[in-house]
Amino acid sequence: MNGSAENGAAGSASAFDLVVRGRLLLPGQPLTSGSVAVIDGSVAAVTLGDAELDAEVVIDAGDALVLPGVVDVHVHTRSAATEGIERATRAAAAGGVTTIVDMPYDADGMIAGLDAFEAKAADVEREAVVDAALWATVPPSGPITEVDALRRAGAAAFKLSTFDTDPRRFPRIDDAQLLAAFAAIAKTDGLVGVHCENDEIVRAGIAAERAAGHHDGPAHARSRPPLAEIEAIGRCLELARATGVRLHLCHVTLGRGIELADRARAARVDVTAETCPHYLLLDEYELTRQGATAKINPPLRAPSEVGALWQALAAGTCDLVASDHVGWPVERKRGDDIFAVAAGAPGLELMLPLMHDAIVARGLPPALLVHALCEAPARRFGLWPRKGSLLPGADADLVVLDPDERWTIDPARLTTACGWSPYEGRELHGRVRLVLLRGRQVYADGAVVGAAGGGRFVGANGIATREVAHV
Ligand SMILES: [Zn+2]
Q: Which of 49, 59, 151, 336 has its CA 20 to 30 A from that of 303?
């Protein structure tokens, strides 16, 4: 990038600490040249046009895009003990993600109570390179007593799963407990996010594939049919309707899932739907081509579903995009038995460039990028307007993205520790050049320059709201 730093004249105080000039990419607006002015780590002003603002440091990004830092609401930093908060948030910085919302299913146990939550928030302050808010969860059985305390401590949302990923750290919540949890969370005006897959249908599907001697990639998709996801979505929508809880559907893979959410909205259910880059950019054929590196739960789907998700994203019925990042070491993604390898893929570092490339290639408005990756997730998780916006007073979390640079994804050159990617070899248009967290550089010209302790825990005390797309 053509960055230039100019010191203010000696002895004269500049109006602003920092000004970043470029083509501003803001929700609901066409690309316009302009400047973002920063004082004390917060956005002080945004001006359109070429007016020169007086600042101690001026970064001229030329024709590059300037947008709010990405808010990735679905990240698992501690599922893989080999990754952790520091390494994952370094990858976030490299990918233009300035706020993550981290999942509660950590390798050493789940975050279901206030003590564990506060300990993790303290770890964030020590280890994080970008800012982090936190999900919590509830115990899979027994009384649900800590929702209110967790909300007051700043928990952004409560994650529950209808599928038993791991009985100790990522358990299935049965229907009676799901209902009790929805009711308890509703009382605090909180947000509940659910991994929707019907446990019994999936278990039976895996057993049937194994019995038939099938354990290759495509067997994974067959074992988790669309109905397994749709049934669980429908059940959660009814429970949300009955309890009045604010519901977020994590990683929706199917057009019908979005359609059910949209119908429920018409019946006054407060629901948002999330999808992920892998459901928009990869299809089930990857389970044949790549095998285990394409194993994700729910599975990659038919190409027709990819098309349906894009339509929903463009129409605003799918609200936001999140990475569902998990940085498994490559050993966990190898083996002849698809049912024995870990599910999930790293995506934090590539989400913004992948989505930018795809939105431009599809001729969709660039503002969709900041709606789906910045504003909508920040609003829904109670972080807006401090995060996901460039309104005056917001944290000066900025990304400079060069829309023209071509590059090819090489997992060996990524920041994430895992060394593999389901997007290996993909050529992209557009690359992150510079990332600022509260006005300070955390990534510049190919290197992470932020350090552990630079990121903060962000308590989400705002009310989760749904903003209709206005791109
Ligand atoms: Zn997840």
A: 336
